[in-house]
Design brief:
The complex is a heterodimer of chains A (about 100) and B (about 170). Chain A is an all-alpha fold and about 100 residues long. In chain A, about 80% of the residues lie in helices and about 0% in strands. Chain A has a single domain, classed as Helix Hairpins, CATH 1.10.287.3510. Chain A is built from three helices and no strands. The longest helix of chain A has about 30 residues. Chain B has a domain of about 80 residues: Four Helix Bundle (Hemerythrin (Met), subunit A), CATH 1.20.120.1200. Chain B has six helices and no strands. The chains are: A mainly alpha (about 100), B mainly alpha (about 170).
Chain lengths: ~100, ~170
Amino acid sequence: MTHILVLSGVLFTLGALGVLIRRNAVVMFMSVELMLNAANLAFVGFARSREVLGGQVFVFFVIAVAAAEVAVGLALIVSIYRSRSSIDVDLVSDLKG
Amino acid sequence: MTIELAIFLGLAAVAISASIAMLVSRNAVYSALFLVIVFLTVAVLYLLLSAPFIAMVQVAVYAGAIMVLFIFVIMLLGTENVESTPSHRWQFAAALVLSYALIIQFIVVAFVLPADPAGEFAEIAEGFGSPASVGTLLFNEYLIPFEVTSLLLLAAMVGAIVLARWERTT
């Protein structure tokens, strides 16, 4: 259990770091997927450790929600690219005061 | 050291190095391919953790559908190397400090939790995590969340079409 939680934590941190340091919207989005995967890994680890299958069912739901999120998010990225020909998040700062 | 632990450590090394490679590669297509490696490694880890159904879903949905969408969008927009603006120096340093704090927290939590009495990769009941057992639970106890998920997917599909539709300005 300890090993799995440490790996899950490391992957989650790498995902968070990716969201913070990258400027490409698609790569930031991939980092979010990495964080979701780290959380799923912890769920499956706990499901096995406690021998409760509910954790695996929850991972199933998380994967379904992630698929929906990717579809909408990538559509947003495509529509941002249409309006300003770039997906660099630093250039999308119209609301900045 | 048991054989399971050895396999786990090898997979963990692959997953972590592929994640780091994803973060540092300049080309978004390379990032996507490294992310596929991470997803496949995590799928094998699910097999190791006696979750064969979730492992197959991971390969089909994540490594299959989601990554195809990512690569499709990258190719469609032609934005492999858009990292143009140099981000502020202090942002990079702050990100490193914050992620260091986060990882310390995770490791402390992992070691504070009580260890499994039977050992980490101990024997487990036959059929745990098989498609039949997961399906039984899914369609009895979690039936309403399952139906709500289908509604969510429908809403996401409609939303994606509305957002990405080509506006005809006649």
